[in-house]
């Protein structure tokens, strides 16, 4: 085995190096245009992303979190309403629900897919339930058929959180085009990442799109006329122009991620990425009872890993007021204790994956 490799958790070498000239040209065009907010780059990227995702409308925003908050507001979700969300979701999902004053109703995930467990939803639906937040975690989509059936049965809205699943699909329909409304984050480390903060809301409903446009821009459609209390959450021209360049490569990068996941699967005898063929493998997550020691072992040999996420939202200090305690969501807690995310990004070679897997197998055989 080759020793002393340095494999970071994420590297942009294989993503930005090849398209550097295109990115620089796009940035330079924006600088020279002398128009930096809500100009032609934003409009163009909205058109391109809407079309890529099969959504009629796309509204650029400043981040995935803002996209979730505005999406909830577009659906008039507020104090007194309940929103169902996975207990192991990223904190932003919980924060968005809290920010609009609604009640977070955590549902345990399936330990097979890490997404909301369809069989545990119905028992938590009440007359106050307004929506299900479908967070497509790690690049794999939720069971949308089952969610749509439940949503129809109880007249609920579905908000898709597409932050980790750009390009994934379900029954040939792209993520972020299935629910009533969806938020996508373009945080730099996402499959499609900006070079700063950015996000987008997508929907097939023109009224929701109009509301989102107003809400992202001070509640205004006509300058200095403010119809509702809005946000400053605009997708700037620079990020939009850079995202337009990168969007062209997303499918190619996603295919590379799937290939890497397959290499991991073959060597580790793991099947996660094979659960759904359209998984875009944002995170390759393994479980280990000796997770912390395994992470140290890998780190000691130059392999950086991350944990998505070490503390589940219900045990975060921010949610102390909800009075949850350890043991309330045992699956989310176990995932927080045992999950380990391995490097996965375009540019990793098969021999890098051999190196990482040999280290894991060596650790497991002790
Ligand atoms: C599942 C999920 N939802 C929401 C977000 C929030 O996105 P942002 O960081 O752009 O606000 C993220 C990104 O980190 C995420 O992974």
From TrEMBL:
GO terms for biological process: polysaccharide biosynthetic process. SUPFAM superfamilies: PLP-dependent transferases. Signal peptide: none annotated. The active site is at 190 (proton acceptor). Keywords: Aminotransferase, Pyridoxal phosphate, Transferase. This is Aminotransferase. The lineage of its organism: Bacteria, Pseudomonadati, Bacteroidota, Saprospiria, Saprospirales. Belongs to the DegT/DnrJ/EryC1 family. GO terms for molecular function: pyridoxal phosphate binding; transaminase activity. It comes from Portibacter lacus. It comes from the Bacteria. The modification N6-(pyridoxal phosphate)lysine is found at residue 190.
């Amino acid at each position: 085995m080759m020793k002393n490799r340095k494999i970071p958790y994420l590297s942009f070498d294989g993503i930005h190096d090849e398209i550097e000239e295109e990115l620089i040209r796009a940035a330079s065009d924006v600088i020279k245009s002398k128009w930096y907010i809500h100009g032609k780059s934003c409009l163009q990227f909205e058109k391109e992303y809407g079309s890529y995702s099969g959504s009629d409308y796309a509204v650029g925003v400043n981040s995935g979190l803002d996209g979730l908050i505005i999406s909830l507001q577009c659906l008039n979700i507020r104090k007194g309403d309940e929103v169902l969300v996975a207990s192991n979701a990223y904190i932003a999902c919980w924060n968005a629900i809290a920010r609009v004053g609604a009640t977070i109703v955590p549902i345990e995930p399936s330990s097979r897919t890490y997404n909301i467990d369809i069989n545990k939803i119905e028992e938590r639906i009440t007359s106050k339930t307004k929506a299900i937040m479908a967070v497509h975690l790690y690049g794999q989509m939720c069971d949308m058929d089952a969610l749509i059936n439940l949503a129809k049965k109880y007249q609920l809205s579905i908000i898709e959180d597409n932050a980790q699943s750009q390009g994934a699909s379900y029954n040939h329909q792209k993520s972020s085009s299935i629910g009533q409304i969806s938020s996508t984050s373009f945080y730099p480390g996402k499959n499609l990442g900006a070079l700063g903060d950015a996000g987008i809301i997508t929907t097939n409903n023109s009224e929701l799109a109009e509301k989102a446009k107003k809400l992202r821009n001070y509640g205004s459609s006509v300058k200095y006329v403010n119809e509702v209390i809005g946000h400053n959450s605009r997708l700037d021209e620079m990020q939009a122009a850079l995202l337009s360049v990168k969007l062209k490569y997303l499918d190619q990068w996603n295919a590379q991620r799937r290939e890497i996941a397959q290499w991991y699967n073959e060597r580790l005898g793991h099947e996660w990425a094979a659960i759904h063929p359209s998984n875009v493998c944002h995170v390759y997550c393994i479980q280990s009872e000796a997770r912390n020691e395994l992470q140290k072992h890998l780190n000691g040999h130059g392999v950086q890993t991350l944990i998505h996420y070490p503390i589940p939202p219900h045990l975060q200090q921010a949610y102390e007021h909800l009075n949850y305690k350890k043991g309330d969501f045992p699956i989310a807690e176990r995932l927080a204790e045992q999950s380990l995310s391995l490097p996965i990004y375009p540019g990793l070679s098969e021999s890098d994956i051999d190196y990482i897997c040999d280290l894991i197998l060596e650790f497991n055989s002790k």
